[in-house]
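I have been asked to look over a protein record a colleague put together. Alongside the sequence sits a line of tokens, each denoting a local backbone shape. Please read both lines and tell me whether the tokens look consistent with the sequence. Take the sequence as given and treat only the tokens as open to question. I have pasted the whole thing underneath without changing anything:
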Amino acid sequence: LLLALTPGDGGERAAGGAIGAPERAGRVFYGPYCRLPPGDYQFELRCDMRASVPGRAVTLEIVAGDRILAQDRFALKLGPNLLAIRFEVPQAGTAADLLGPLEFRLGKDEGLVFDCTSAELRAASNGSR
């Protein structure tokens, strides 16, 4: 999935398909504008933090058009990090109710330097959210 994401103004494609995030603030990645059948999902992102400023964080969002399905803010530690966010694609009663293409977005504060090394989307297991 990482290769399907597009680097934004706060990210750049790195070696091996990773998405690097230099010190500047901005959108690290966005996309891939996919459709999913109704159900519960979990998006997992692995990042390797190389430099951090206390109090700075990243924001992970799953959106469909102007609708935010999930959003969370994460303070990353030096070294490997796993960011996981759950979301639901609801049932649609009519064609007009179908959820538009999904976009996965990662934004970051200035001063954080890291590489996004993998991204995975999976059906979430039943249980609490």
